[in-house]
Design brief:
85 residues, mainly alpha, 4 helices
């Protein structure tokens, strides 16, 4: 159901947002999990550190759901593998 990247993201989100991992599903809206902007920024930093990626600040504003986060992280992972990040 979830690939490796999605599963790792689910765990990071659950740990940082202090929610049950089962709440992090495809189609989930990030705002549904509560938290504030500082918590979200800490989570983004944790994701970047975990995957060894960096995504532009503008991308942070475009993340509204789990699916969007997965797409952005997978794109950043590919870019870092190809040396375009």
């Amino acid at each position: 159901m979830f690939d490796e990247v999605e599963e790792q993201l689910r765990q990071i989100l659950a740990d940082n947002m202090k929610i049950d991992k089962n709440l992090v599903q495809k189609g989930s809206q990030l705002e549904d999990w509560g938290g504030d902007s500082l918590q979200f920024l800490e989570t983004v930093f944790e994701i970047e550190t975990h995957f060894g990626i960096s995504f532009p600040d503008m991308q942070n504003e475009k993340i509204s759901d789990f699916d969007g986060l997965v797409r952005i992280v997978k794109t950043a992972i590919e870019a870092s593998k190809n040396g375009t990040a």
